[in-house]
Amino acid sequence: MASSSLSLFLSLLLTLTLTLTNSLPQPERQTYIVRVNPRAKPTIFTSHYHWYASSAFSSDSSQPITPLHVYDTVFHGFSASLDQTQANSLRQNPSVLAVYEDRVRHLHTTRSPQFLGLRTQLGLWSLSDYGSDVVVGILDTGVWPERRSFSDRNLPPVPATWRGQCETGPGFSASACNKKLVGARFFSKGHSAKYGKEAVAGNASVEFLSPRDADGHGTHTATTAAGSIAFDANFSGYAAGVAKGVAPKARVAAYKVCWKNQGCLDSDILAGFDKAVSDGVNVISVSIGGGDGVASPYYLDPIAVGSYGANSRGVFVATSAGNDGPSPMSVTNLAPWLTTVGAGTIDRSFPAEIVLGDGRKFSGVSLYAGKPLSDKMLSIVYPGRAGGLSASLCMENSLDPKAVAGKIVICDRGSSPRVAKGLVVRDAGGVGMILANGATNGEGLVGDAHVLPACAIGAHEGDVIKSYVISSANPMATIVFKGTLVGVKPAPVVASFSARGPNGLSPELLKPDLIAPGVNILAAWTDAAGPTGLETDSRKTEFNILSGTSMACPHVSGAAALLKSAHPDWSPAAIRSAMMTTASVNDNQDEQLVDEATGHVATPLDFGAGHLNLARALDPGLVYDLGDADYVSFLCAIGYDARIIQVITHVPVTCPRRKQLAENLNYPSISVVFSQTNGSRSKTVLRTATNVGTKPEAIYNAKVELASGMNGLKVAVRPETLSFTKAARKQSFAVTVTAAGPTSTPVYGYLVWSDGEHEVRSPIVVSWVQPM
């Protein structure tokens, strides 16, 4: 009896202890990425996974670490869900180089191949066989494979170097892949660790735990880069014609690292890079960036770290510059081994016209494709006059139905998606919308597939129309939609939203590198989302028209595929150099490129080296090449120590005792930085050019072009002539920049090397910074 009572007591005590333990606050856990020195692995472990899961990485043997992702190609290490104590313990582990938190990144949300200078059976398309032997890896939201843009008709067999596979899952079978879509994978472990497994698996009506694209962004970027030819393509009648990617025969491998409505986790992005390189891609396209407006140091940036590993294995990586323009220093993806792409317009637009009751007309843009407004004039109202800021922005539940019913409503741009404002107007009873830019957006316009008759207008026109509404006793208006207009001039112009320099991490490196078509781009779309992306938009469309540096990036990825196919021996740096030094700095009226936001002449801080011009990139004459040793020297020059650099390079490095100039990185652009407190006004930077022209014997002469108003700037080049031979394909030179004194804004010019046939153009930007 006593024994039975004791057992009952112990059982109750154990239950009470477990209850109290479970009721105590548990250490908060989150996902961390752990960078490990692979050379430290003891031979007793058969794999890195077994090493990471062993007691060697756990301070508590009863709670071993369970890796989520294991990285072993572009990055050595793992990700895992840890509490702060475990993370701190790992930081003290001698085999660990770095431990940092997993963060959320965001997507940087036809006719463009012809606008880039590509022609059927001529030039780069013909000489590269349209990129048929190249695989482009797309790190994005997945793919919707049942699209003509993924047809493999008339494609040759998949390249023998391809090692990837077609992962299956809900809504995605192995038969979804073919000779065009050669591989598809998805990466959800980081996402699940942050949001819970049910965030995807329990919401199958919104997402797919497979490579299938529930968002549309990934399908659009993949087919922009390498979509197959699709005749009779259009979006609701707009942009009708033949749709094709920049490299229409290139193969596509989709790596789903981003999830609808919840962004992209660093740990999943790194896993995507790791697997893409292991699978054998030749080009990687990443239209993803930081969402907080602050650039991370290179060693804490998964795109920078992952792309370094890819670059060192000969894989070209293109990234989007971001959509926070026209603010200065808004550019993201800043590492020198990345090609960072801003956005420009093309010579096609979708005009709409606002007609006021007093007869005045104002030009805007729209992709509205529903029933047009009636011919008669309608009342127009600006709710921001009486309803405050939320009403002026047409935020959810901000509009009074009594005030807007049956009327055209003016909404200010900002704070919520442009298309969502139209939904708010429609639900409140409004029959049309005028979407007015604010001062920060300037006059830059993009078309949207609105859910009601709507037109976007620039800031100046918006102010004029608002003034009319406020001053008129009975303001009236209507909107007329005019379809598709081709042959627009000037084009390109720098898109107002395109992120701008200077480089916030390393001002000695000019970013963005160049711009490419990123406004009103037609490409394939998903059936899982309407063209606006709004949950209430049930429309289905094979193609959609989007704008953003997300759309510009795959143009450069496709271009890289063509150049890699035509020049298989070129390094990623050589391919980037060919694009940059042949980029256009003039528009289709042969005038200087203009900034859409201001209407003023743009500068290299807006467009980098210029606008992608593939008619010239095939044969650039000279290139500025780079390798791992050059990037290591740059990282040493900006003050990184050997241990931090190894986090990026995954191999031990040694920095020279005498620090080099960061400006000496052999880049196709030149950015010279002076200290405002230092008396020096002169600096000499070095470059080495490699002759890749068809003629091994070539003589190039230097010419310096300074922008107007740059009288205080002097640029000298020594030697002024470069002579190349079969035995001397590389020649070095020095550029000495002398400035009269600090200015409030950077000054710029160009260095042009010419042999009478080629013009190898490099922007020169000179700026002054305050020491930290």
TrEMBL record:
Q: Which Pfam families match?
A: fn3_6 (PF17766), Inhibitor_I9 (PF05922), PA (PF02225), Peptidase_S8 (PF00082)
Q: Where is the PA domain?
A: 380-463
Looking at the record, the residues that make up the Inhibitor I9 domain are 31-108
Q: Ranges for the Peptidase S8/S53 domain?
A: 131-599
Catalytic residues, chain numbering:
140, 217, 550
UniProt-recorded Gene Ontology molecular function terms = serine-type endopeptidase activity
- Name a GO CC annotation attached to this entry: extracellular region
Subcellular locations according to the entry: Secreted
Superkingdom of origin organism = Eukaryota
Task: List the Gene3D superfamilies hit by this protein, alphabetically.
Answer: 2.60.40.2310, 3.50.30.30, Peptidase S8 propeptide/proteinase inhibitor I9, Peptidase S8/S53 domain
Major subcellular site = secreted
Q: An example of a Gene Ontology BP annotation on this entry?
A: proteolysis
Matching PROSITE patterns: SUBTILASE, SUBTILASE_SER
Q: Which SUPFAM superfamilies match?
A: PA domain (SSF52025), Protease propeptides/inhibitors (SSF54897), Subtilisin-like (SSF52743)
Tell me the first and last residues of the signal peptide.
1-23
Residue ranges occupied by any Subtilisin-like protease fibronectin type-III domain in the UniProt entry: 664-766
Q: Which controlled-vocabulary keywords does the entry list? A: Glycoprotein, Hydrolase, Protease, Secreted, Serine protease, Signal
UniProt family annotation:
Belongs to the peptidase S8 family.
Report what the protein is called. Subtilisin-like protease
Organism of origin:
Rhynchospora breviuscula
